[in-house]
Specification:
The complex is a heterodimer of chains A (153) and B (66). With 153 residues, chain A is mainly alpha-helical. Helix content of chain A is 73%, strand content 0%. Chain A is built from five helices and no strands. In chain A, helix 1 packs antiparallel against helix 3. The longest helix of chain A is centred in the last third of the chain and has 30 residues. The two termini of chain A are 23 Å apart. The N terminus of chain A is likely disordered. Helix content of chain B is 56%, strand content 6%. Chain B has 66 residues and is mainly alpha-helical. Chain B has five helices and two strands. Classes of the chains: A mainly alpha (153), B mainly alpha (66).
């Protein structure tokens, strides 16, 4: 079994994107989680910027430029997914269990929400914006992580 | 599954953080195993037993609840 450091680090020395990197995590888990958080922030900023740019008529008419702007967040999103998979593969076994259960909760809730709302739309509910199911998935995964950390603390 | 981790740790005067460092896991994992909230993987169970120079059966009781 390879040794991992578990020392805590002072709050003031943590980068601003260190949320979720609490003291009981190993140094490797903190580092991997920070890397993932940084890619998520980059993805979110690129997504918001892309929406702002693509809703401007000037860029929306330039087809090639519009496609590039639309694809940049996807690349950053894939990098975030890769970073999260790496975090899970290398994580402490209890941390991995907590995150996998939270991810399952988020994914399952998202699927139920999407399919359930598609039926609601047939029944007359207003059409749903695409980012909303993603927000539901992320929110439920976050709640799942919080519940997991409480359960096993 | 019941275990003697807390007793063994006390006998060696080791903190949870120290045991965690020796095993290469988080302190939260050691705490969860100690309190019976989490059953460790087989490699970690072997690691815990080896750390205290015991067999798995001497550390973990599969018939115990928890």
């Amino acid at each position: 079994m390879h040794a991992k450091q578990t020392e805590t680090e002072p709050e003031s020395s943590r980068p601003w994107f260190s949320w979720g990197c609490h003291g009981s995590l190993s140094e490797r888990d903190r580092r991997n989680l920070r890397r993932y958080n940084a890619w998520v922030v980059a993805f979110a900023l690129a997504f918001v910027t892309a929406v702002a740019l693509l809703t401007k008529p000037s860029l929306g008419e330039a087809a090639a430029g519009a496609w590039i702007v639309a694809l940049v967040p996807d690349v950053l999103g894939v990098m975030a997914v890769r970073a999260y998979v790496r975090f899970l593969r290398e994580a402490d076994e209890l941390v991995r269990k907590i995150h996998l259960e939270a991810t399952a909760l988020g994914f399952g809730t998202g699927v139920v929400f999407i399919l359930g709302y598609s039926l609601a739309e047939l029944a007359g509910a207003p059409a749903l914006d695409m980012p909303i199911p993603a927000a539901v998935m992320l929110a439920m995964a976050g709640i799942g992580q919080w519940l997991g950390m409480r359960r096993y603390r | 599954m019941k275990n003697r981790l807390r007793v063994l740790r006390a006998e060696h005067a080791w903190s949870q953080a120290e045991v965690a460092k020796r095993l290469g896991v988080s302190r939260q994992t050691v705490n969860a195993v100690e309190n019976g909230k989490y059953d460790p993987s087989l490699p970690l169970a072997f690691g815990i037993a080896r750390l205290f120079g015991l067999t798995i059966e001497e550390v973990f009781d599969p018939d115990g609840g928890g």
